[in-house]
């Protein structure tokens, strides 16, 4: 019994088939063990985490948690997984990190986001900004360090653009 080719639109089905195949084998081969372990250690937990917390406010934290959970992999597999995470690392962009920081439980983190947003407002460059996925820091200790802030001209997140300075400060004080 073979689970078939993976289709990106059917990852959950593929994960279920991998685990079903793994459970059915008395002596699974090394590749199947690697895939089943990844599903159990990374894909499954992240699927439930994202389904439980689907807001864009949590996107950067989800990205960081995915990176953290995948650190158990061997260096060769980590290289493959890291390339995929990097290519899809949109929530590692400073604008998205700032949104996540505004939704943080800690007021000090929300205050840091407020300061960065106010700085971005004062440096408001005319025209359309370029949205570029940053080089992700795969060794970051928390989501706020998932990229190097100094490498970017920080721009205001579109989600906060229509908020007054007072409304933004209110979010810092009371949280989202």
Please give a structural write-up.
The chain is 55% helix and 0% strand. The chain is mostly helical. The protein has a domain at 90-174. α2 (30-52) packs antiparallel against α3 and α5 crosses α6. The longest helix has 23 residues, at 30-52.
Short descriptors:
single chain, elongated, mainly alpha, 7 helices
Chain-wise SSE layout:
Layout: H1 11-24, H2 30-52, H3 59-69, H4 75-87, H5 94-102, H6 107-122, H7 165-174
Query: Could you tell me how far the N terminus lies from the C terminus, measured between alpha carbons in angstroms?
Result: 49 Å
Shape field: elongated
In percent, how much strand structure appears in the residues?
A: under 5%
Overall structural class, as computed from helix and strand content, comes to mainly alpha
SS element count, helices = 7
What summary fits the major beta sheet? Answer: none
* Estimated radius of gyration: 19 Å
Short overview:
The protein has 176 residues and is mainly α. The chain has helices spanning 11-24, 30-52, 59-69, 75-87, 94-102, 107-122, 165-174. It has a domain at 90-174.
């Amino acid at each position: 019994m073979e689970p078939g080719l993976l289709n990106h639109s059917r990852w959950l089905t593929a994960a279920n088939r991998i685990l079903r195949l793994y459970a059915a084998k008395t002596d699974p081969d090394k590749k199947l063990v690697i895939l089943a372990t990844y599903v159990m250690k990374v894909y499954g937990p992240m699927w439930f985490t994202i389904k439980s917390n689907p807001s864009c406010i949590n996107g950067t934290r989800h990205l960081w948690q995915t990176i953290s959970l995948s650190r158990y992999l061997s260096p060769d597999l980590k290289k493959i997984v890291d390339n995929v995470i990097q290519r899809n690392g949109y929530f590692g962009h400073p604008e998205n990190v700032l949104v996540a920081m505004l939704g943080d439980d800690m007021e000090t983190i929300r205050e840091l986001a407020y300061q960065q947003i106010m700085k971005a407002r004062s440096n408001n460059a005319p025209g359309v900004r370029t949205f570029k996925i940053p080089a992700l820091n795969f060794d970051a200790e928390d989501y706020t360090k998932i990229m190097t802030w100094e490498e970017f001209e920080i721009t205001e997140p579109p989600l906060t653009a229509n908020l007054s300075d007072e409304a933004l400060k209110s979010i810092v004080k009371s949280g989202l």
